[in-house]
Amino acid sequence: MASVVRKIISTAKAPAAIGVYSQGVLVDRTLYISGQLGMDPVSGQLVAGGVLEEAKQALANMGEILKAANCGYNDVVKTTVLLADINDFSGVNEVYKQFFTSHCPARAAYQVAALPRGGRVEIEAVAVVGPITDASS
Questions:
Q1: Residue-wise over 51-60: b if at least 16 C-beta within 10 A, else e?
Q2: Tens of pLDDT along 78-122?
Q3: DSSP letters spanning 1-43
Q4: Among 133, 7, 21, CA closest to 68
Q5: I want to staple 122 with a disulfide (CB 3.0 to 4.6 A). Which of 16, 82, 91, 126 is the partner?
Q6: How far is residue 75 from each of residues 31, 56, 121, 135, 136, measured CA to CA in Å?
Q7: DSSP-derived pairing of the beta strands 106-111 and 76-83
């Protein structure tokens, strides 16, 4: 059986991992992006302004990891959104649709008991690196 290549994806333009994990892992053409909090990559602190600003920063951080793997938001095929309060879903969705403007990925959203560093939202993703051909519906 032929082996597949695993490559760790890392960029200083997104916050460093705050635990024992990688920002992203590319296996063959599939990129797994670890959950991104709304942390400023320079200070390592959550951005001010609440859940909407945190969502915007989390997605910007995701974008930097995508860029480091030579892909973008249109290459994302699945996301998971973790919320400290499910009542923030609508507001976070408004921010989310600014980043995913076409070819929207499949998504799940959950309320969780707590997020690291007191965050209000965390977003992880799976993307495909390289050419994608869209089938007609």
A1: bbbbbbbbbb
A2: 999 999 999 999 999 999 999 999 889 999 999 999 999 999 999
A3: -----EEEE--TTSPPPSSSS-SEEEETTEEEEEEEESB-TTT
A4: 7
A5: 82
A6: 10, 18, 22, 15, 17
A7: parallel
